[in-house]
Design goal:
The protein is of the alpha+beta class. It folds into three domains: 83 residues, no CATH class; 81 residues, RNA polymerase II/Efflux pump adaptor protein, barrel-sandwich hybrid domain (OB fold (Dihydrolipoamide Acetyltransferase, E2P)), CATH 2.40.50.100; 219 residues, Chloramphenicol acetyltransferase-like domain (Chloramphenicol Acetyltransferase, 2-Layer Sandwich). Helices cover 33% and strands 25% of the residues.
Length: 465
């Protein structure tokens, strides 16, 4: 047919151009090479200028510019680069540990004009939300996916054109009009007459059908018995879990199933650190542009304590123990979508101001859903502050592959013995949950006691005692 000749001609043309260009982009833009397959569908070769590897059998097309795509029917193929002004917006790379995601939201519609690098869709993964952006300004001509679809890196989300949308929208209905007229032109009466002939035969077969419908009812009630789902009730609604929530649930349950979790407690007199904050909060804000909080004091105390108790910063890997000579502190942040833990890199080298700035930055990104994979990867120790929600006491769960987590709680005034007197003091309960397979009770208690000593008297940080 003429279409196959056209496809073959395009294939040969692209191969010749690619040979001359030695893998360079065609006309400065990405393009797809269409090859006919044995069974009729086509193989897509996509331009991926960021990848690397070997050739795919076409001389001049290096792996650095092309990769073998999925097999699709030739009718569904949209070529890029052959027509001026046509381009696509695709799913970007999601990171090494993420292979796919769910399309959470489509922010634009067909016919909308978008600017370069504008977000048109959002993809929810197990860890973060990823934006799909347009490579350049143009008008969306077609949305190729729908909300809830599972997509992988390179999936085409939308096709765009530099041309205006109105003329293209006018052409679409015109093309549809003749299609609507064609069914009208067809003669249904004769077909209906043929169908009218068999009724008498059906009447003969009428007696057997009654027993058949009677049999289906029994299996239908059997199905709900096999499914563990709850029977819906009034004023209840069922909502599918997000990928992030499912991931959090899986990891926390794996932690309980794998680790020998044990929690030790202590209490901290917050008088001195609260006085320190009150004395220097204005000067600190004026110089560093960020407020002085309690989290920076606990991060510094934990970092110093981990130096003295390196096993708390270690992790079991098979039959080995991996000791880390650095401290990357994960800060647990609650968001509407679920719990995320951005990481403070090399916390032992950071000052109070650096810690506060970084915590504010990561917290804003966590709440807006713009954290990157790199900002959440790793972490050797976690700090969770349930006190911001009013929690008095809790037993936090270790975040794998770490071995311990420090839980902060709310500050409450309680009567405490100070010297020979009883005085009201602002007290905070702290909890350390740890993997007892690796960390003995002695190390855990001494670590938590050292955190208590530093927070109660921050001068220890200056004297390194």
């Amino acid at each position: 047919m003429g279409a196959s000749k056209l496809v073959g001609g395009i294939t040969r043309h692209v191969a010749r151009v690619a040979q001359r260009r030695s893998g360079q982009l065609l006309n400065g833009r990405s393009a797809e090479l269409i090859q006919p397959a044995a069974a009729g569908p086509l193989l897509l070769l996509r331009d991926i200028s960021t990848a690397a590897g070997s050739h795919h059998g076409l001389s001049g097309l290096s792996r650095s510019r092309w990769e073998l795509g999925r097999t699709v029917p030739w009718q569904a193929v949209w070529s890029r680069g052959f027509a001026d002004g046509d381009f696509t917006a695709v799913v970007p790379s999601m990171g090494e540990s993420i292979t796919d995601g769910s399309l959470a939201a489509i922010l634009k519609s067909e016919g909308d004009h978008v600017e370069a690098d504008e977000v048109i869709a959002q993809i929810e993964t197990d860890k973060v939300t990823i934006d799909v952006r347009t490579p350049e300004a143009g008008t969306i001509t077609a949305i190729k996916v729908k909300e809830g679809d599972t997509v992988t890196p390179g999936t085409v989300v939308a096709t765009l054109s530099k041309g205006e949308a109105p003329p293209k929208t006018d052409a679409a209905p015109k093309a549809e009009e003749p299609k609507s007229e064609e069914p009208k032109a067809e003669a249904p009466p004769p077909k209906e007459e043929k169908k009218a002939a068999p009724p008498p035969k059906q009447e003969k077969a009428a007696p057997p059908p009654p027993p058949k419908p009677a049999s289906p009812p029994p299996p239908k009630p059997a199905a709900p018995q096999d499914t563990p789902q709850l029977v819906p009730k009034d004023r209840e609604r069922r909502v599918p879990m997000t990928r992030l929530r499912k991931r959090v649930a899986t990891r926390l349950k794996d932690s309980q199933n794998t680790f020998a979790l044990l929690t030790t407690f202590n209490e901290i007199d917050m008088t001195n650190i609260m006085q320190l904050r009150s004395d220097f909060k204005d000067a600190f804000l004026e110089k560093h542009g960020v407020k002085l909080g309690f989290m920076s004091g606990f991060v510094k105390a934990a970092a110093e304590s981990l130096k003295k108790a390196p096993v708390v910063n270690a992790v079991i890997d098979g039959d080995d123990i991996i000791y880390r000579d650095y401290v990357d502190v994960s800060i647990a942040v609650g968001t509407p979508k679920g719990l995320v833990v951005p990481v403070l890199r090399d916390a032992e080298k950071l000052g109070f101001a650096d810690i506060e700035k970084k915590i504010n930055e990561l917290g804003e990104k966590a709440r807006s859903g713009t954290l990157s994979i790199d900002e959440m990867a790793g972490g050797t120790f976690t700090i969770s502050n349930g006190g911001v929600y009013g929690s008095l006491l809790s037993t936090p769960i270790v975040n794998p592959p770490q071995s311990a987590i420090l839980g902060m709680h709310s500050i409450q005034k309680r009567p405490m013995v100070v010297g020979a007197d009883i005085k009201p003091r602002p007290m905070m309960y702290v909890a350390l949950t740890y993997d007892h397979r690796l960390i003995d009770g002695r190390e855990a208690v001494l670590f938590l006691r050292n955190v208590k000593d530093i927070v109660e008297d921050p001068r220890r940080l200056l004297l390194d005692v």
